[in-house]
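Researcher: Following up on the earlier apo prediction. This time include the ligand. It's flavin mononucleotide, with the SMILES given after the sequence.
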Amino acid sequence: MMENNRLYQTIFKRKSVRNFDPSPLDRETLDGVASQFNKLVPMVPGIRTEMRLMTNQDVRGMFKVDAPHFLAIFSEEKDGCFLNAGFIMQQMDLFLSANGIGSCWQGGPKPTKGLRSVDGLEFVVLLAFGKPKEKIHRESVSEFKRKQLAEITDIKGKDDLLEPARLAPSGMNAQPWFFTDGNGAINAYYHKSIIGDHMNQIGVGISLCHIWLTSRHLMRNAEISVGPSSTREGHRRYAYAASIKLT
Ligand SMILES: Cc1cc2nc3c(=O)[nH]c(=O)nc-3n(C[C@H](O)[C@H](O)[C@H](O)COP(=O)(O)O)c2cc1C
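Model: Understood. Below is the ligand-bound prediction.
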């Protein structure tokens, strides 16, 4: 619970770090990062995933940041796998930030050929990390460049849950989410895109992670159900992703 609260508090100050000390973190710190893998909670327990530590040389591609370390998540290809990967990796993003380690999501870069699958699981996305050479925390929520709450939801009276979702990071800061009321649950939608559906689903998984951590902080349980977009009507340019209900 203590740990969850630290992650929750970090939602309101984290930021992407793109300036790193090139030297690797010490063994003890890296062991601490790896031991966190066992504590990660999936959004969809039926999807098998694996986390791997990688070096700068293991990773290539556009918008890569020059970090000494990278985390890669691999997953079974199933409905909800991108939401699930976003949900899981965001726990690492917050964990690193809470511990003074800089991190930056990496949607552009990929592991080099030969490192793109693990045990029959496919590579999904990367998070760069290392010793920061810039500030890693914001001083206040006003420093976040984000849409207003009214632009991302028509739900009234649940700001305590939706404000943390609003602050979530997303590829190109697109904030590809919308939230509607689903009979007491929050229905989450991702912005449909010809080129970026996967990234947008990862983004919605990240925002749902923030709602889920908030429910833990409020000492409530949260049930998350994921359905194929065909199970619910879409919302304007958005497709249905998942629902989260506090119990
Ligand atoms: C799925 C995803 C992919 C991203 N890909 C990149 C990337 O390839 N390169 C990069 O520099 N930043 C990347 N970012 C970081 C975003 O640009 C950043 O989160 C966003 O601008 C909000 O800023 P903040 O994280 O400082 O709050 C990515 C973020 C997410 C969530």
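Model: The chain has a mean pLDDT of 95.
Researcher: Noted. I'll compare it with the apo version next.
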